[in-house]
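User:
I study polymers; will you set down one protein's sequence and backbone structure tokens?

Assistant:
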Amino acid sequence: MSSEIAKAQEIKRLTTPLKFKDSKAYDSEGNLIKCVETLSDVRFIIEPREGILTDDEILQYAPDSKAASKIRLDRGFGDISDALLVHESLPWYLGIYYVILFSILIPISYHRNFSGLIVLLILFIVPLIYAYAVLNLKRSAPRRIAEKTKKRIQKADEVKIEDSRFEPESFDTLKMYENEIKNLKVAFEVKEKVVRNLIEKRFEPPQLTYDKFIATVDSCSKIFNNQADSSLEIIELAVDDTPGIRRELDNKINIMKRIINQIEDLTNELVINISSDSHSKDEVDVLLEDMENLVDSVKDYKSD
């Protein structure tokens, strides 16, 4: 079960927006994030820790990471950007190599040294063959189809991103709300899965206590998803960013955060309760009551 908690914490770290201070980027745990430079891009990428997430989870929660690029290349649908990210130093080494090679070529050409030109030609071709193999550019027909499909998707995403840059400044705020809501949804899905597993471990079905806990978690899940879906719908349909819209989104986000915090507290108490010899349920029961009160308060808020 500790692995599930570690996985939840890792996904939260990967999906939480970076914090910038003094031109440096930090993740949610305060770790300094390295700047990754390629020939066409400069960005900060959070790399997943080893041994926590599966390959599919890395592709889902850290798609821009070097680890995800390695997975895509291994599976045969990575593209040149993935290869350049994995072998980020290769273009610079090749650049330096060919600068030196051309500086040698000038005096050899001047003296018309035919043998030297043959050697230089070989030295010119060999690194290209190596780069061709390393960058995984040779693909079978099915892989090329997969690559083209992926590129179309990427181009569509790039168009959407480029279009959003020309939106009014007010819509940038709505975009920030949208990103926060999506991150909260990811965090809730992970924490909900963990707490359900803990409840099953602590209260084996069909105990009444088990049914009570699961019913409360179900209610929290339903309310959370309703708040998230309605928030995203507001953002999608909004023609302008107004104080009223921001106020409504803030209220919904606060409710979602409160639900996540309650689920997180319940998870921690269940972990303590499972490992405790006394098997006292007092604090767990208090948390459950708090969750029920939260559900009731949200229902009252929706009915107003």
In short: The longest helix spans residues 169-202. The radius of gyration is 27 Å. Residues 2-87+136-164 form one domain.
